[in-house]
Amino acid sequence: MINRSDLENFWTRGDIHTRIHLAMSKAGLNDKKLEIEDLFPIDQYHARGIAATVDLGKRMPISENHKIIDIGCGLGGPARYFAKHFKCFVTGIDITPSFIEIGNKFNKLTSMSEHVNLQVGNGETLDFDDETFDGGYSQHVTMNIKNRKEFFLEAYRVLKKGTFFAFSEHGLGPKGNPIFPLPWADTSEMSFLLSPEITISLLKEIGFYDVQIIETSEKYISGYEKMINTKPEKVEPILGIHVIGGTTMKQRSINSMKSIKEKRTLPFEIVCKK
Fold first, then answer.
1. Helical H runs in the chain?
2. Predicted confidence band at 236 (pLDDT cuts at 50, 70, 90)?
3. pTM score over 0.90
4. Interatomic CA distance for residues 198 and 204, integer angstroms
5. What b-and-e string marks burial along 123-150, b requiring 16 or more CB atoms within 10 Å of the CB?
6. If we measure between CA atoms, which residue out of 149, 148, 146 comes closest to residue 190?
7. Is-contact 166 141, C-beta < 8 A?
């Protein structure tokens, strides 16, 4: 059974503070005022990076001054992007203390602390009152959530009536189990994929309605191919998800691409209403 410590170790892969500090220093970005765009190569820690965040943002009806929750915020990259783009306020929670500590430092460096607050928390037991937020989202988090119904119930509980919940994930495809290791799991013990049909059924059972789904397989295949097929003579960028994901990230990405092509997994985005 996967526990919280195992998940944290998987995502941080050792001394993440030192790796990020060294990469930032090498890039000339430590301890200086930054724009949020300076951090896109490293703080959009999910497949397709900032492109996936922008795509999801286009589907979310966020207005100025809305209070939004990001469940599984990582380093807070999407939260900073949405806060700046929509002029809203984002509260992000993540089970990984290292991500929260680094993410809040990034908030200060980008002058986003007034609009983005990151804190340690668990998506299955959110520490917020009922109907607190004007909307919520989650990016590539649910694949690690075994109790998906409890996760969705908590999201539903903290959202105001008439608001939205959006998320992106890799769902279970019709052609068997995915090829491990993957960007979100080294083994099947860490991966809890559901088919799109079961996911939609769960959302409706909880009370969400107007569930809109878009399959994104081709976008993810293209994104993985672009990352994997880098010419050998090309120098690896100083900042990138390899700083966090380590030396195995390329192989895990290859396996994820193969899993999509073989229809073992189906990436999709969902936006629904409460």
1. 4-12, 16-26, 40-43, 49-58, 77-86, 97-109, 148-158, 196-206, 217-228, 242-245, 249-261
2. low
3. yes
4. 10
5. bbebeeeeeebbbbbbbbbbbbbeebee
6. 146
7. no
Q: Determine the 3-state secondary structure of 45 from DSSP.
A: coil
CA separation (Å) from 248 to 180, 219, 235, 251?
Answer: 12, 22, 17, 6
User: How far is it, in rounded angstroms, from Cα 220 to Cα 14?
Assistant: 28
CA distance 113 to 99: 15
3-class secondary structure, 175: coil
- Dump pLDDT digits (tens) for 117-145: 999 999 999 999 999 999 999 999 999 99
Whether residue 68 contacts residue 82, with contact meaning beta carbons closer than 8 Å, is answered with: yes
Contact partners, residue 166, CB within 8 Å, separation at least 6: 56, 59, 60, 135, 136, 137, 138, 269, 270, 271, 272
Written as six digits, the tokens of 183 are 């960007």
Residues 247 and 199: their CA atoms lie apart, in Å, by 32
Rg of the chain taking only CA atoms, in angstroms: 18
Per-residue pLDDT tens digits for 242-271: 899 888 988 999 999 999 999 999 999 999
Half-sphere exposure of 233 (CA within 13 A, CB side): 0
Which domains can be identified in the chain, with CATH numbers? Answer: 4-171+191-217+267-273 (3.40.50.150)
